[in-house]
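Async update (no meeting this week)

Hi team, since we skipped the sync, here's where things stand on the single-chain job. The sequence we agreed to prioritize is pasted below, unchanged from the tracker. I ran it this morning and attached the output directly underneath so nobody has to dig for it. Comments welcome in thread, and please keep replies under the output.
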Amino acid sequence: MNSAASCPLPLVFITGASSGIGQALALRYAQAGYRLALVARRTAELQAWVQAQGWDDERCAVYHADVAEIHSIVAAGQACTAQQGLPDVVIANAGISVGMDTAERDDLDVLARTLATNNTGLAATFHPFVAAMTARGSGTLVGIASVAGIRGLPGHGAYCASKAAVVAYCESLRGELSHSGVKVVTLLPGYVDTPLTRENRYSMPFLLSASAFADRAFAAILAQTSYRVIPWQMGVVAKLLRLLPNALFDRVLAGRARKHRSGQGR
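Output:
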């Protein structure tokens, strides 16, 4: 029996829920009274965290998926609908961030893996729900991009390219669904204190805690805001950088520490 039939609480589906932004979003949605469908590769770790929150099976279900594998995340979405019902909100949060150097052959594999996770994985996260949400006439699809997608940064080619693609993809999808009742929200985090960013070797202005980001993201999603940079100050900085002539932009970033490449220490 579909457990959603006896439980009127709204449902949110979140990928990358085992840590960082995904985990903070799960907590925020739980506080707001949602049922949770949480997806991660590290399901044992996620399940232990869920149990620590005291959430029973009616409140939260955990699904295993690697978003870089299309069949894996599509199957998780289908399992969610079968077990818990069609979500009200789907948040494609899972992503990776690794530095790259195009002169290094191995880093071409880093690029391919980043695009598979951050882009194909995002579309595959949405796929199981689009037709059903359209038929229902409601739902919100949320893509987690980054301010790093506004302008390319040295050493960040894979990540910047993938996040710029998230923005463009979500904009395209928003247009496709504009008359369906299904909303598409694009969120661009600035620097958020997570295990991913703690390895960065450069300053992180306007750094937010994961919980502070989740509060602002929840409000933006609830308002069905089509595009929002969080915090707004980083949006101003990124747009100003976008306006700089290339020669000046290159000088500003000359000598800036780069993101770790795969296998590098801090």
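Quick observations from my side:
The helical segments are 20-31, 43-53, 70-84, 105-136, 157-176, 210-222, 232-243, 246-253.
Confidence is low (pLDDT under 50) at residues 1-5.
Reply here if anything looks off.
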